[in-house]
């Protein structure tokens, strides 16, 4: 299945010089959405997963679907100030700026086996911050799972100590 046919390049978004990988055409096709979910699930193999962590906001789409199929809980990681309860916060760098991510302090229990999912692995700053949040809460990062990996940005290098897998490479 050529999932790349359903990924649209948008030039200069969110700022000049960035080529944004728009996954909305893929999300808009029920058959392709299901096949993509199954392909991402296959990346996990037979690993035991207690929680699937999805990053704001496009990571939420497949993270919730994967959590359902894995019979695991879903945990959202959001940008600073978006979660309503006690949070653990971690600053990070991304390809076009700086930000902070937060997770509820009760979302991950000591020993939880965690699958991290996001739509794109770019520079790796977001993924590294999320791995650190999970570990600070006592969870074990089993795998970092991505729909798209932008190989030329070498984001995988920042999370080289983890099992990383991506469905599509650019």
UniProtKB/TrEMBL annotation:
Protein keywords: Cytoplasm, Glycosyltransferase, Purine salvage, Transferase
Residues annotated as domain Phosphoribosyltransferase: 26-148
Organism listed in the record: Cellulophaga lytica (strain ATCC 23178 / DSM 7489 / JCM 8516 / NBRC 14961 / NCIMB 1423 / VKM B-1433 / Cy l20)
Protein EC: 2.4.2.7
Entry's Gene Ontology cellular component terms: cytoplasm
PANTHER family, A to Z: ADENINE PHOSPHORIBOSYLTRANSFERASE (PTHR32315)
Name of this chain's protein: Adenine phosphoribosyltransferase
Example GO biological process: adenine salvage
Family to which the UniProt record says this protein belongs: Belongs to the purine/pyrimidine phosphoribosyltransferase family.
């Amino acid at each position: 299945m050529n999932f790349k046919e359903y990924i649209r390049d948008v030039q200069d978004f969110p700022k000049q010089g960035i080529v944004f990988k728009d996954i909305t055409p893929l999300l808009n096709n029920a058959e392709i959405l299901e096949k993509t979910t199954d392909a991402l699930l296959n990346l996990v193999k037979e690993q035991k997963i207690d929680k699937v962590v999805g990053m704001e906001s496009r990571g939420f789409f497949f993270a919730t679907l994967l959590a359902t199929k894995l019979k695991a809980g879903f945990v959202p990681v959001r940008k600073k100030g978006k979660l309503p309860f006690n949070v653990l916060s971690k600053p990070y760098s991304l390809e076009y700026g700086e930000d902070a991510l937060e997770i509820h302090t009760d979302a991950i229990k000591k020993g939880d086996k965690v699958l991290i999912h996001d739509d794109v692995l770019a520079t790796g700053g977001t993924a590294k911050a999320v791995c650190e949040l999970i570990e600070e809460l006592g969870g074990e990062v089993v795998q970092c799972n991505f729909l798209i990996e932008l190989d030329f940005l070498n984001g995988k290098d920042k999370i080289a100590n983890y099992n990383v897998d991506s469905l599509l490479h650019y």
